[in-house]
Amino acid sequence: MWKYPKEIEELEIFKKHAKTVGIVLMVIGFLGAMFPVFASLTTVAFVAWMLLFSGFTVGYFTYKTDASDWKGWLKALIFLGVGTYMLLSPIGGIATLGLLFSIYFFMDSFSSFTLATSFYPNKGWGIWIVNAVLSLVMALIFVIGWPHTSILLIGLLVGFSLFFDGLALLTGAKLFDRWMGNENKGK
Predict the structure, then answer these.
(1) For the chain, domain boundaries
(2) Residue 70 — φ and ψ, nearest 5°?
(3) Which residues contact 112 (CB under 8 A, 6 or more apart)?
């Protein structure tokens, strides 16, 4: 997604924007973690509008390309139906997202355990075990408290994710500063 630029001019632009965007993402992430219910509702509204837009887009595409394609119309109706449901019943939408998150974490745990066993006994296999265990714990937290804990957990996860995205951008900008300092000293 964000590639590290190679040219000096591109690096300067990256550094400037990485700091700005990093700080903004960290603030939004912090606020999301501090107010997880609001962050969950905002996330559900965002996902709902994406689904509605996708439903209209798929419906338009189906109409223009093959109006007799029932699978295209079905896909459009599913997007529209789920998006409408999430807007009209945000708590139900949050519960739905919570269930999807739990499925994701179970799948991530399984794939990380599989990757760890394929890496063993090489160096680095342990980090995949740690990732697998953490994903399994997250999945169990979602499932055990579902649907009631979803309203807090989704906001917390989105907040943490945004915060660490911002932290990664700030770190990248600082590494660039260090690298440029070392580069300029050698000239």
Answers:
(1) 17-174
(2) -65, -30
(3) 128, 129, 131, 132, 135
Segment 113-149, tens digit of pLDDT:
887 888 777 777 787 788 788 888 888 988 898 888 8
Residue range 148-164: average pLDDT?
A: 85
